[in-house]
Amino acid sequence: MMDISLLNTVLVTAILVCITFLIYSKSKLLNSLRSILISSETTCHKLPLGSMGWPFVGETIQFISCAYSDRPESFMDCRRRRYGKVFKSHIFGTPTIVSTDSDVNRFVLQSDAKAFVPFYPKSLTELMGKSSILLINGSLQRKIHGLVGSFFKSPLLKHQITKDMQNYVQLSMDKWREDRPIYIQDETKNIAFQVLVKALISLNPGPEMEILKKQFQEFMLGLMSLPVKVPGSQLYRSSQAKKRMVKMVHNIIGSKRKAGNMSRVPKDVVDVLVKDASQVLTDDLIADNMIDMMIPGEDSVPVLMTLAIKYLSDCPAALHQLTEENMKLKMLKDTNGEPLIWTDYLSLSFTQSDKDIINSYNFTPFGGGQRLCPGLDLAKLEASIFLHHFVTSFRWVAQDDTIVNFPTVRMKSRMPVWVKRRQE
Fold first, then answer.
1. Tens digits of per-residue pLDDT, 221-272?
2. d(C-alpha 387, C-alpha 378), whole Å
3. Which of 260, 267, 329, 377 is 20 to 30 A from 405 (CA-CA)?
4. Cis preceding-peptide flag for 407 (omega within 30 of 0)
5. Distance, CA of 58 to CA of 38 (rounded, Å)
6. Which pLDDT score, from 0 to 100, does residue 289 have?
7. Cβ-count burial of 39 within 10 angstroms (0-12 exposed, 13-18 middle, 19+ buried)?
């Protein structure tokens, strides 16, 4: 029998399948990476064992082939057995040091920007821009990360997000019918995107939200596209979509500045960044980063919720235990006899034992160090609220579906389920 703790362990493992870090050993790490990135000439630094594959393509074909298979981790497993936990390779046109060692990974994540800086595919850097929080380093990155992280942790925002999430989940679930399948992946994307956009720029569901969502989906298609920016190419279309979204955010920033009420308590991330008195955070920088920060609402958070439903569907024992716990919580009332509105849903599906297991296995689904996701608590909050309402409101039967691991984790058939509402 699989309990909830094991369920979450499996869930996190699946999400992390395609995540690798460009690292080497603690003692020779920095020098080895410099020898790779600065020059292709022979150096005195000893590299880890491994293979650089074929000329030009390296081991990219094998990597992608494994990523599309039922065992995407097989690329790493095979080389780990042959060369050790840290090995060299050549993927996506770049000499790469791959680490499957948790201690080394933690060392890299905890290092400052002088030792390691982020590296992304050319198409992604082209779309993100030089001022993206994903690409910048040093004091500016720490400043933006700190401001956004503090806001996302604020009790006021958590209370507001809890209310918004419950509202959006309820509105979505009220439309679900029992005579046709519900596509969980689509539903979670719609809910998570609305919640995150509300927290970033205070945009409510409506025509503008639908326009933004359409442009954002076009933008996302270019992140892992061929780095060719000519009219008609995906990268070009995605770039144009981002320009249109940035213009929308600029209009929102302009309206806030004209209103002249920046002294009030901030209600979204734009308020937090606009109120900064350092003059470093320009309107262009703020607008660009608002678009980049929307990515989890379309990608990682919906994936977390969708995979949770998949693994619950595959494990009746875990589903029964989670449902019982949440049914008890659903019956709680406040002092006035009203249902409680929890501002901390983390306890619903991420118990202390779950956190201990994740820590013991050194999983890092939200990054670490200076690159720790500033919306970590928000992501867990959203997932927990969705799971609570789903398991307490419905019984369901999931259709067979498979996980696609490349270029991003998703369900092949969008996770269709047949639902039946629970009787009170």
1. 998 888 889 999 999 999 999 999 999 999 999 998 888 755 578 889 999 9
2. 14
3. 377
4. yes
5. 19
6. 94
7. exposed
